[in-house]
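Supplementary Data S3. Sequence and structure tokens for construct A.
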Amino acid sequence: MPLYRKLFKQSLLITWKNKYLWFFGFFAALLGNGGDYEIISRATTNNTSGQISLGDLMQTNVFSGQTLITIKDFMAEEPLSFVLTLLVGLFILVMTCFLIWLVNVSQAALVNNAIAISAGKTTGFKEGLEVGKKNFWPVLSLNLMSKILTSLIFVIISFPMIMSADRPGAAGTGLLYLLVFLIFIPIAIILAFIIKYAIAYKVIKGDDLFISLAKAWNLFRENWLVSVEMAFALFFINVLFGLAVIFLVMILALPFLFLALVLYYMTSVIGFWLIAILALIFLFLLVMVAGAASATFQISSWSTLFIELTGRGATAKVVRAFGGLLGGR
């Protein structure tokens, strides 16, 4: 059986037969289903929408002396409101830290359990959670390293556009941007592959953080074509799955829409809004479950590929195809 077909079939069975993994998949998906796709998307749109830069924060004057004066006045005039605001802020901070913890623990747990299941071992939610907790700091460090380096790369890519912002017609700016793009985007994508493999080395092999990175680099260097092929294959699966989810949402939304319109024309405004809210909740849950299953499938695919590469090894489909053509001559 061809390599990718075998891996995808195995990952699909892991995802479908072990639905408790979807819990880990939901939180792991918050890291982004495939950083390599996110890199390409961000670069081609020339923006970092949804992200706040340090410059944006500085423009708000949140770190100015006036802010401290405002806080001081607020404490003096509204002490109770200040304490309540402080408690709410502390609660948000605690929940954010817990979410960060859960996201990284879930990623490690998913990698561990997917590989254990593929090897025929018995494992469960508790075992995955324990492994995830054990590997929280290394996985967090690797993910932070990936985010920081990727952001730095995008700053470098955006630099020609920033420098020419006041000179929109500057000659050579487009060519310079293209050149920087062609140099740094592959570096960012390679980094995404290395982080995937480094997490697997740390979680499965128990290697030191920097040893995991060194081994991940060697594994990618020796199997870069297989990694790229895997990324493209998962990208097309993602697209097809996304289209299927959109189609399913549209189909399931029709009964809700029909019932809401009937209630609206019967002058039942409360009924209309009740159905609309129920529909939104139901569709949100559907998308959430689909995202969790998708993340579980993707991480399982990369994890089983890791085992294949570190075990028997693998040959890229392109190499096998050209080898067959040359052998047939």
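Construct B, processed identically:
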Amino acid sequence: MNIEVILVNSFTVKGKGGNPAGVVLNADGLTDAQKLKIAQAVGYSETAFVSSDDDADFEVSFFTTTDEVDFCGHATLATFSTLYQKGILTAGTYTQRTKVGILSVTIEPSGKVIMAQQLPQTLACFSYHEISQVIGIESSVLQSTQLPIEVISTGLPDVIIPVPHGYLDLIKPNDELIAAFCKKHKVVGFHVFELCSAGSNLTASCRNFAPLFGISEESATGSSSGALACYLTEHLALGSEYIFEQGRAMGCTSIITASIESDNATVTSVKVGGFASIIETVMIPLI
């Protein structure tokens, strides 16, 4: 039996850049073991599997090449953009059941997909010294940002790490050190950012490292972008609308938008959006 997998670039800029994901429609009959084998054959950071659901419009599960993860932003974008581009869905708001709960997804007439995420949870805080030893930037340099290093989850727990402008592209990730740190502290990965200048249309440039899940570096990370937007809302007065650039160091620049709604300094809504482009369709043999 062959399984049809649609390959999609998410968070593209005019059809360029982005982060690739696999999308499998009509995945009701697949076991978790089969899904993992398909994801491994695809070889992307995540592959999404779309099934029917009694309460939500769809159930969507996400597999890396090593394991299932509870949520994936760029694979969600790939899924709903594909459903829209293939004429299965029209512009409107839908729901998906994920391992983190039922979340809404809105498809705009332009094809932009806006995904709701979980409300933020701040789970831990690390010292500059602890992180310095892992990413190879002196603790005094990290401290100069005057911003904390925190674990924030809007679906997946990521370490949000600010660095001064000019240091982001200098990072040479050590997969072994980062994976060991993430395993020890039960987090998915590192989301490192530098703020852009006041005159830029971008809020921040970002890099994401999740080698514990087989992802040395990712060119666009939706879940981490939601967490970063919540972080910036709490610690800096930057408004409620954010534009993030990611993937520059990989030669695969992606653009991710995020919006936050708050009530008396409490976040009440987290949404992340972007565009996606279908690359091609492949057939994966299922043995």
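The CA atoms of residues 1 and 166 lie 50 Å apart. The chain has two domains: 2-116+275-285, 121-274.
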